[in-house]
Write a structure and sequence with these properties.
The protein is an alpha/beta fold. It folds into four domains: 1-64, no CATH class; 90-324, Rossmann fold (3-Layer(aba) Sandwich); 330-424, ANL, C-terminal domain (GMP Synthetase, Chain A, domain 3, 2-Layer Sandwich); 457-742, Metal-dependent hydrolases (TIM Barrel). The chain has an eight-stranded parallel β-sheet with strand order 22-23-24-25-26-27-28-29. A seven-stranded mixed β-sheet has the order 6-5-7-8-9-10-11. The chain is elongated. The termini are far apart. Residues 430-456 have low confidence and may be disordered.
């Protein structure tokens, strides 16, 4: 035909389509019936366009047109002639046209058929637009005489129906689709026996959720990493490589595909040593000719004959690559590439916005969400919902920030540039991780999940969290690499430590004031114990806006530990309380060894924290670290509250499997409260949920168990349970404020 193809993103705005069609000098525009008016607006503005073809809603050719079967005759094109002109966003806000010749398309097909484990007779389901990554699976399928089933959009139930009905054996998916399948459907109950491979691509996928997907759907997952500039050719992590218990390995994007050479290079173009971070540079016959009408960008991208991807990675001793960051500010949300500069330009066009910076923030469902930090113009107030609507109208729905944070100023580097590293720090705490290793959860299925994100976070008083810093875990049973791997496997937290300032920034971002708990200090000698407490007190003095106080964990059988508790009660900043663990040498809280410590807290009018129910400590380890669950029964809360009526006793955690007994104790004793850290409220027993809205409403404190569970996640999930706003206000901060006032803590 002598034609070339340019795909348009259906969710983009008319203005974006006009820019692309003008730069491509497109002559024919093909749209589906729902976008006919959209297409006519583009046709009216682009001088090169001569034809508009509207595909009927029912499919097929436009009315009045027909075709006859005819031989496929090779055209005059050579391997270097342009076949595919695909546009990708640019850092200047101008989209870049990636020029892919016929040789690139051939190389893509060869790599696909050689390394992607395509079934011998493929039955391929394309659940995403063919203008996107799903389109790359069409040619290899047809060349093998296979079948392509095209869907106009993704519906999880219909997706599974089609696999069953059409006996689909291969499909391209993106992390968002896979998460939705896991969260909204029960794929393990469907007949997916025909399915041989799911290629997931276009963005980071949580290793924890990937492991869940393999368990519920099957060992059919294969990861592909590539770029539009390389026709999707890059690396592959095949199905067999997914058969591992290592979450870190599941974060790998694999090894180079056949015909592709990969280097990791430094700023000077030299190879970096194994294990160190470098930019991915690729060379293969699928690499683009360049960017249309952008010679300088082309020269930079293809410098030295290598495609400089802008993606930073490291390589392990086995040759596996791990994407860790991007030099560019591209955000991958729901499988779509979104460029921060384009969102920033749209935000800056609003009359209330003085300046803006945009980053991608990790999200379990979307991979990343667009997050904007905006500074208001003098005398202006930023209406978050109106601003999101403004960006949506200007750029399309996928560019509209899911989260908007209004700030007084943006952080700057010494040379005056916006410091995006500082903005990312509270969210991307571990630069070595491709995706966050957080606790898996079931995200909501509607847009309601992001309603919470578009409003300022509530004021939180968190009555129990741990430390996100490495120093905060000193003396813990998880100091060795082996022990940490056990923790990752059970709690789905990668122990991705942050600095003191980064930890404070995370609390600040969540609008939280936190009671911190070291948890393992009772094993330390007196000197180390004092040093650890001094570290905590220094942090509290430096960041008084986010630290409520500290829980003190000691061994009451050691006199020096008891003296240290006395020092902390008299000198410690903020609220100081005693953590009572049944697994110390003193035993359960009702044992006489605890009596002196309980009396000290009573005299100081400071609370004690007693863990009840299944405790995180020891969970998932052989022998549970010697801890028996019986020692965490609510009866011990009942006993010390009865024998020390002037002592405030806070029961920590949900008390499962004895939540009924714990509720009874809290209702019976006026000096007993419940603090619910360590559990997502979606997993609370029904009885507990019911009582929180009724008789326990004024007896419950919010607790997070940071960093294993984030404050933002828990706030969203509390809101999803249907509690009234008044109840949530009490849980998030109201009850704690009343309690603190009663014991004289500001």
């Amino acid at each position: 035909m002598g034609a070339r193809f340019t795909g348009l993103q259906a969710l983009a705005s008319v203005e974006d389509h006009i820019v692309v069609c003008e730069d491509a000098e497109a002559t024919v525009l093909v749209v589906t019936a729902p976008l006919e008016e959209h297409g006519r607006q583009v046709l009216a503005e682009v001088g090169s366009l001569r034809h508009l073809m509207v595909i009927p809603a029912a499919g097929g050719l436009p009315e009045g047109e027909s075709y006859a079967v005819r031989p496929l005759v090779p055209g005059p094109a050579t391997e270097t002639d342009l076949a595919w002109l695909q546009y990708t966003g640019g850092t200047t806000g101008r989209p870049k046209g990636v020029m892919q010749p016929h040789r690139s398309m051939v190389q893509m097909v060869c790599a696909h058929m050689a390394d992607f484990e395509q079934p011998h007779l493929p039955r391929y389901l394309a659940p995403a637009p063919l203008t996107h990554a799903a389109g790359l699976g069409v040619l290899p399928t047809l060349l093998r005489g296979g079948t392509v089933v095209i869907e106009q959009g993704f519906d999880p139930g219909r997706f599974l129906d089609i696999i069953e009905a059409e006996r689909i054996n291969c499909v391209t998916g993106i992390p968002t689709m896979i998460y939705t399948l896991l969260d909204e459907e029960r794929p393990e109950t469907r007949d997916l026996s025909s399915l041989e491979v799911i290629w997931y691509a276009t963005g980071p996928m949580s290793p924890v959720r990937l492991a869940e997907a393999r368990e519920r759907i099957g060992p059919v997952f294969s990861q592909i990493y590539g770029q539009t500039e390389s026709t999707g050719i890059g690396t592959v992590l095949p199905k067999a490589a997914h058969e591992t218990a290592s979450l870190e390995r599941l974060a790998s994007c694999g090894r180079p595909v056949v015909g592709n050479r990969v280097r990791l290079i430094d700023e000077d173009g030299h190879d970096v040593p194994v294990g160190e971070v470098g930019e991915i540079a690729m060379r293969n016959r699928g690499v683009m000719l360049g960017y249309r009408n952008l010679p300088e960008e082309t020269e930079a991208a293809l410098k030295g004959g290598w495609l400089h991807t802008g993606d930073l990675a490291r390589q392990d001793d086995e040759g596996l690559l791990y994407i860790i960051d991007r030099k560019k500010d591209m955000i991958i949300s729901g499988g779509f590439n979104i460029y921060a500069s384009e969102v920033e330009a749209a935000l800056a066009g609003h009359p209330s916005v003085g300046s803006a910076a945009v980053i991608g923030v990790p999200d379990d469902r979307w991979g990343e969400i667009v997050t904007a930090f905006v500074v208001a113009r003098p005398g202006q107030d930023v209406d978050v919902l109106a601003l999101q609507s403004f960006v949506k109208q200007a750029k399309g729905s996928m560019y509209s920030p899911k989260k908007v944070v209004v700030v007084d100023s943006l952080p700057q580097t010494p040379v005056g540039k916006v410091d995006k590293k500082a903005l990312r720090a509270p969210y991307w705490s571990d630069p070595r991780a491709q995706s966050p290793l957080t606790l898996p959860h079931l995200p909501p299925t509607s847009h309601e999940r992001y309603t919470a994100l578009t409003t300022p976070p509530p004021r939180l008083i968190d009555f129990h969290s741990h430390w996100g810093t490495e120093r905060g875990w000193k003396g813990s049973p998880y100091e060795t690499a082996e022990d940490r791997e056990a923790l990752r496997g059970y709690f789905k937290w990668g122990m991705n430590f942050v600095s003191d300032d980064e930890q404070a920034a995370q609390f600040r971002q969540a609008n939280a004031k936190v009671m911190l708990d070291f948890a393992y200090t009772y094993k330390m000698d007196a000197g180390a114990l004092r040093d650890q407490h001094d570290y905590a007190f220094d942090f509290a003095h430096t960041h008084p806006d986010v630290v409520l106080g500290n829980w003190i964990g000691i061994d009451p059988t050691q006199p020096d530990h008891v003296k240290e508790l006395e020092r902390c009660l008299s000198e410690g900043p903020g609220l100081i309380g005693l953590t009572v663990h049944s697994f110390t040498p003193a035993g359960t809280p009702d044992q006489p060894e605890w009596e002196n410590c309980l009396n000290l807290c009573t005299e100081a009018n400071r609370p004690v924290l007693v863990h009840v129910g299944m405790s995180a400590t020891g969970a998932g380890t052989r022998g549970g670290m010697g801890i028996t669950l019986e020692g965490c029964h609510p009866r011990y809360v009942d006993r010390i509250a009865a024998t020390h009526p002037d002592l405030n006793v806070i029961a920590a955690r949900v008390a499962w499997p004895w939540q009924s007994e714990m509720i009874a104790v809290a209702l019976h004793k006026a000096n007993v409260w419940m603090e619910l850290h360590g559990w997502s409220p979606r997993y609370f027993p029904d009885e507990l949920k019911r009582e929180i809205g009724k008789r326990l409403r004024k007896r419950v404190f919010f607790g997070a168990d940071y960093p294993m569970l984030s404050h933002e996640r828990l706030v969203e999930e509390w809101r999803e349970q249907g509690f009234s706003s008044d109840v949530l206000d009490d849980v998030f901060s109201g009850n704690a404020e009343s309690f603190l006032t009663s014991i004289g803590v500001e």
